[in-house]
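Blinded run. Sample ID left blank on purpose so nobody reads anything into the name before looking at the predicted structure. Input follows.
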Amino acid sequence: MIADAAPHGHAKAGRWPHLRLRWGLVVVVALGAPALVTLLALTSVRTVVPGLLYVVAIILATAVGGRVGGLIAVVASAFPFFYFFASRYDRNELNAEGATALIVFVVAALFGSEVLGRERAARERAELAVRQSASALDAAARLQYVADALSTAHTPQEVLDAVLTEGVRAAEARGGLIATVSDDGEWLEVIASRGYDMKYIEPFLRFPVNGNFPLSEAVRTGEGVFIGSEAERDARYPELIGRSQPGHGLVCVPLVGERGTIGGLVFSFPTDQEFSPERRALKIALGRQAALALERARFSAAERTLRERLSFLGEATALLTSSLELDRTLERLTELAVPLLADWCTISMLVEETGEIEQVVVAHQDPERKRWAEEMREGSRTIRIDDEFDLTARVVRTAEPVFLREIPQELLDEAVRRDPNAARALKEISLRSAITVPLVSGERTFGALTLVSETRELQDSEFELAQELAARAAIAVENARLYREAERRAEAALALAHVGDGVVLLDRDGRVRFWNSAAAAITGIPEGDAVGRHPAEVVPKWEELTRLAELADAAAPERARPVTVPVETASGDRWVAVTGVAFDEGVVYALRDVSDEEALERARSDFVATASHELRTPLAAVYGAARTLRRTDIEIPEEQRDRFLEIIVSETERLTAIVSQILLAGQLEEGRVDVTPSATDLAPLAESVLESARLRAPDEIELRLEQNGDRTVALADEDKLRQVLVNLLDNAIKYSPDGGDVTVELNGGQGRVRLAVRDRGLGIPPGEQERIFEKFYRLDPALTRGVGGSGLGLFISRELVSRMGGSLTVRSQPGEGAAFVVDLPAA
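Blinded prediction complete.
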């Protein structure tokens, strides 16, 4: 490869002196050796001796100059031989001895040149094979170095550093550059470079995929672009003339990951280049390695970020429930949000009596800047809830969050015009992105939480996290408010009657004196049944509900600890947050139904666990098979290689299906799935799906279609209904581990069309038959012999059928199989 990369100019410049030197040596040997033999004419040696020496001289000239050198030596030997040695017998006639000598001279030259030529050719072939083997070993070693460096890279930045150090070194390049495709697929954005002058890079930090540039072409076509010289580059891409760094050889290869092209990789060389097939293959292999490593690192980083944010929410929840001291809790909450979420975090509260909005806490990582912000707050103008311009006032007034990914300059200019202090503040800080979310309890908005970034754009994930944080902060604020109110006026029944949380007041004897409507709604016990009695008499789980709640005392209110516990009520299971305060006349309990928040948290945890498990398994299989295929230290049989490739394809298809299900579930919840019903004949549709299912079904499963003869044309979206039927058939096969019949039944009549999928598998317990349609819900593995899934198939199927105006139900008994029935309007 180093030879391939040698400059053409050097080769041409060094060739002519080398030729002159070689042919000079040939002439000297071809003429000089016979001349030395001719000196024997001064002696009286016999003719045979100089004849043999002339043959040696001819062979020597042939070894040095090949056939031409040998023939020159023949001429230089024949004349002196006949003149000085053969003349002793006859100067005027070519006798037999002289003719024989001439023939021997010519044969020696020709035979010697042929033998030496063959030997030289064989030696050159051997040297070429050695060079090629060394080149292949060198390429394999360099690829291994890159693979080792990438295998130890865990973050996207570490991957970039490895590619731009080991990758550039392996490619024998001067510099390298990496660009990734933007989210909309329209742009290439440079994320890392090495060995380039930044003044040439800055104009191309972002350029179009459809542009006439080498890297754009590589990404667009999925094939490498190899340019040997600057002149070739300028001829192919005239847009770069005068705009790019002067150079020579250039290589651009696409970064193709498991999910398609994610960007491109550039190598530049200090001299003009010739790219042999081996060198091209090496560059493409480097690009593939870099793409897979970068994709893996991004997924790992995303998973790590998700874990960190879930950990943050858990820490925030623990913090908010650890104390009812409102001011200190909010201050610690803002300190927790900085700098994880943003550079600044503030919480503002509405003073309901005056309608003013007061900033109660501000946080920044730098204590000096925090003190400066608090001083600025004292001199700032008063904000009222009816202020049409102020962002916080609008959020509190409308209870709608606001996300400014890029804060408009006109908004800052208007703030400066309205408040002179804003101009002073903007000289000290820069504002780039902001999020303001309301603090809401029930129907009441009592404040807002604001996050501000000075240097980067806040992302959608941080917007969602801010809303979750605000929901928990709102709970903490509300609990703290209740605590304060209970501490001041334990028997303020009129004020507490209308709060959204349940309030239970017990006297010294432990009997109920106050039981508001919210407490009645949470427990399912009317006020009339509870007042005057011990709560344990009317609420069977009362002791369990209050056992963990640590009562606050008037002398030590900081000991109050709100706890969240599950409660069984007549309307179902609920999660209730309980806070208890003891005072001279008794105890007051505040009950808050947090079932929705708990269900959301549980769903998020289930999603993370399910997605991590379902995605990690195929990823591990693909990665293991790919690593094995790339090994050069062992010989992999062809059938094993095919098996590994089948594993990669099948697991990639499985991974794609899982991701598609997750995306479709999200789209269904957001209402972004379009359903277009039309007249759809279910018979050919069912037969088509069954044919596909037979290809992957085990031999123990018999798939059949039954139809009662009625017209089965439904008003449905054919593609969406096909997806539903595929899901139902896959489930029927999967949950029939012992084999048996799986039947698709079609029936029509009375303006309806019914499609049923029946199996004789494991069956479903009656108590689980509605829950299996919930998002991410999966049966206990003990009931399914370890068979599992993502928990999305039936949720998606029911949602799609519902949007077509139909219904999806199930009938089943454990051990007797199940029947899933799709009921649709007839066309």
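Unblinding after everyone has recorded impressions. The first helix runs from residue 8 to 38.
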